[in-house]
Amino acid sequence: MSSSSLHPLERAILRPFLSPPNRETYLSLPEIARLSGLEAAQVQMGVEWLKAKSVLQERVDRLETLVTLTDGGEEALSRGFPEEIILGAIADGPREMKDLRELFPDPSVASKAVGALKESGAIRIGEGGLVYRSGDLPDGIRRLRRLLEEIGGAEAPVVLEELPVEDRDLLEQYQRRRGKGKGLLRLDERASKSCRLSPDCPITASEIESQESLLGAVTPEMLMNRSWEGKSFRPYSLDTPPPRPATGRLHPYREFLEEVRTHLVRLGFAEMTGSLVEPEFWNMDALFIPQTHPARNIHDIYLLTEPRTATDIDGWPLEAVARTHEGRDSPAPTRGWRQSFDFEQSRRLLMRSQGTALSARTLAGRPEVPGKYFAIARCFRHDQVDATHAVDFFQAEGIVLEEGASFRMLLGLLALLAREIAGVDSVHYKPAYFPFTEPSVELHAHHPVLGWMELGGAGLFRPEVTRPLGVEVPVIAWGMGIDRMAMFRLGLSDIRDLFTGDLSTLSAMIRSEEHSRAWNPA
Amino acid sequence: MPTLEGHFDDLQELLGKTLLPEEMGRTLDAVKGEWKQFDPSTRRFKIELNDTNRPDLWSVEGIARQLRGGRPLPGRPYDFLEKAEIRREKDGDPDIRIDPSTALVRPFLGGFTARGGRLGEEGLAQLIGTQERLSELFGRKRADVAIGIYPLGRIVFPLSYRTADPALTRFIPLGGEREMTLREIVESHPKGQAYGSLVSSHAAWPVLSDSRGTILSFPPVINARSSGEVTGEDDSLFVEATGFDPGRLLLVLNILAANLTDRGYVVEPLMTGGTPPLVAPASPGILVHVPSGLPARILGAPNDPADFAETLLEFGYSQIALKDKKGEEGWEVLSPFTRDDLLGAVDVVEDYLVVKGFDSFAPVLPHEFTRGRPAPRQKVETRLRQALLAMGYQELLSNILTGEPLVSERLGRPGDDLVRIDNPASLQYAVVRPTLMSGLLSAEARSSRASYPHRLFEVGEAMTLGEGLAQTGRPVRDLWLLSALLSHPQASVSELQGVLEMVFERMDRTLSIRSADRPPFLPGRCGVYVNAGGKGVATVGEIHPETLDRWGIRMPTVCFEVDLEVLLAS
């Protein structure tokens, strides 16, 4: 151990130890602070460094108890102690015990406080159980308040053992009476320590002093006037934890969505966008969802107060869609839903409930053939919000228009998406039902940790969807629940956290994302 | 989606085959069902059924029937279909007379009798569950279809379905103790309160009574106590359904007749009067033409025509014949009598693919090359997000629906232009956000413990009401916004202005600032950047301490918001 690598803080701490009478003595941390002229925090830091270098040895002298206020304590100070609340409540006249109990969420608190006040003579219980005021707040409570205020206002935590005996008794008594878990105070044990020089430490006082001539930080002046020439620089300990810069971060969920977007663009999909508000026509009717379908009642969709209906209906293939629903003269060979089509309902505006609305608009807008389109669309669901239901969420979906698009191609595309986007190889295709596709399939994937899970739904659009919109080629349609994939990646169990405004939850999400990425560089 | 509860042994018995609980997930692929729950000690299970268009599968009997390939159980033939043909040909007096006055209220009623079976406890529970699902989900809370089931014992045919005066017609309803008028039932009986609104707007209400004039029920509300409640021991039953669409009634009655046949009952169709008369149960005779090339075209691989026909017969289709339609070669397929979901040829082809098993097809990739591209808007967002990231800002993502006070009172702004949800599930999510600033302020309010400075931003969609004409009302206008917030002990407008101007520079836009007075900013410390045309692009300013106080923020805070649409157009 060379003394040349000592930090000025370390040298200041060592100086008192190196004067002859102290060479073998233990000095407590406050003593070191006094002798070195350093702040307590500086001493603590320097002693840690010197311990790590085996220059100083430490021993525990005794245990101290640090006293701080709990949230309950803060609350008692601002709301008042039960005894104070009760005396306050009967200041203008007696009250029944039952009323007093109602002042507290836990009635047993009232009973205990009344007992204590009765004992001290501050109250008496008269005829009919009425509680009268008969004296002042007990001295103990008053002293307790003063004491708690002191503890709450202190700069550094108060050491229990350094308090006068009567204060200590008072705190202990009250703490016991309140019972566990309702404490006003938090007691933390801390060791009071002292240090001495290690017996085999070779550092001498003169060595310490000689170091004073070593150069510290390189300064522009030093470089300008070359004052460093012929001198030595003090080595720095680079193993001390450095301060870290505050950095900006992109939102991890948004980053996940960008990743999905990049994959889809790479696979040849062009992005579709649209308004958050859609008429039922594009959100439902054009997708051949019957007008009486349960997903269309007001408990499943969000309607607008103003405006209620769409006015820009120019260019909508309303007639062809209506005939298809009714099953008469449809451009597609179908029996239809055999119920009359309500044009008013078709114009009703709602918050987009599925991204497929964008696919319907794309199909009706002379899409490219061959063509692939996708959307990562914010959608809205009429649900009580909880850990698995968010009020709005993202859906990824897409369509493939191709002369030879087929069910086998749909399966191939789904396997590709599962591999590229979700990183899973083992899939199962489960028959499914959606009003707008036939055949319909659910994609189930085997996740190494979560087991089999549903990744998305897909199918070939029914001719009842494509023909009225003017599309003659078969169209593959798929949708994926990307929220769930993101939750797994980000280590979340509550979907609401995806849209959290809590910066600490966000940091945890970022760390989890970094962790999963570090282990899966792909 | 309907959920079904049942007993595993009951299912196996109806299937005539042993099943393994651990294989049920895949077994149910054929009925688009999910094996949700199984308790090995009670052997009870729950199945969720995904096909909202196949009510025939919403019962244990129905699932077992589909898994049997639609075939009847040995010795329990679905011979009521032939009996229905005979009954129709025989004509004669109807078993149930219909009074024309029902035409306006609830015009159709069909029914049948079932004798000689035994439900037992499990069968009864299934029958009631099926009735419930059919009338609540398929029948849309009895509005389209309501079902009545009665012990046959005390009923004397022919029956009569007519309308009656709600104030004068009385009987003891099931679950009641005394005679009540129809109106009293609707006003005070729980079933009357639940379903009375389906008839209460009419002057006369429907009743079904037998030949002695005894009232059997008040469709679609409740049965009479006198006809009794069905028990597991009843060996003969009368089943009827009422509604507006004879096709739907027939479907429901066919399903119930098949289910009861599976339980050992012999079903006898009844004829209801009218033009034409309604005989139920009976084959609805739904024919679908499948062009012969379609299966191969949909699958994307050649298939064996003989295999197509055979496979469908094994899946419960009763008839498949080669037949041309309008010169197009193909098959004519007769739908199974319990199904009404075949709208066109694609539905038949899907059934074929389901039986073959989706996992059995070799997947192929799309053949054609297409050009992938993100939306132009995404490129702009990426640029902006990178710029703010480089300046040390943390990105947020918030819900688009929010509570009205957060975007009006709390910001000191009027709520006149808010896009409101008419039927919110919660007041917390009752308006579409018109600004991203409230999301940033909410985050700041929750984050006083995180070390300062706080630099937050969000880019995304919002919405407001635009200018409109008096006749058409105000249209919704989609907004595309970027907002940022800066909060620390020395936070100042100029610090954030610097950030904002870097953003403009990044987008290669030069804008001039004018002072403005806009909540939630401090007057004199708020400015609006305008483009060459004088149009506002961005607002920046220090948040008024009064506003900070409303949010519970105890740190100097500045914000800006950019209208990206206007910025790009500038």
What does this protein structure show overall?
The complex is a heterodimer of chains A (522) and B (570). With 522 residues, chain A is α+β, with helices and mostly antiparallel strands. Chain A has three domains: 3-55 and 198-224, Arc Repressor Mutant, subunit A (Orthogonal Bundle); 68-191, no CATH class; 254-517, 2-Layer Sandwich (BirA Bifunctional Protein, domain 2). Helices cover 37% and strands 19% of the residues of chain A. Chain A is built from 20 helices and 16 strands. Chain A has helices at residues 8-18, 29-36, 40-52, 71-79, 82-89, 97-101, 107-120, 139-153, 165-178, 205-210, 220-224, 252-266, 280-283, 318-326, 343-347, 356-364, 407-422, 463-466, 482-489, 503-519, and strands at residues 27-28, 56-69, 95-96, 123-125, 130-133, 158-159, 185-197, 270-271, 277-279, 349-351, 371-380, 392-401, 427-431, 437-447, 451-461, 475-480. Chain B is α+β, with helices and mostly antiparallel strands. Chain B has four domains: 1-71, Phenylalanyl-tRNA Synthetase, Chain B, domain 1, CATH 3.30.56; 75-280, 3-Layer(bba) Sandwich (Phenylalanyl-tRNA Synthetase, Chain B, domain 3), CATH 3.50.40; 287-358, Phenylalanyl-tRNA Synthetase, Chain B, domain 1; 376-569, Bira Bifunctional Protein, Domain 2 (BirA Bifunctional Protein, domain 2, 2-Layer Sandwich), CATH 3.30.930.10. Helix content of chain B is 29%, strand content 26%. In chain B, helix 1 (8-15) crosses helix 3 (60-67) and helix 5 packs antiparallel against helix 8. Chain B is elongated and about 95 Å long. The model of chain B has no long low-confidence stretch (mean pLDDT 94).
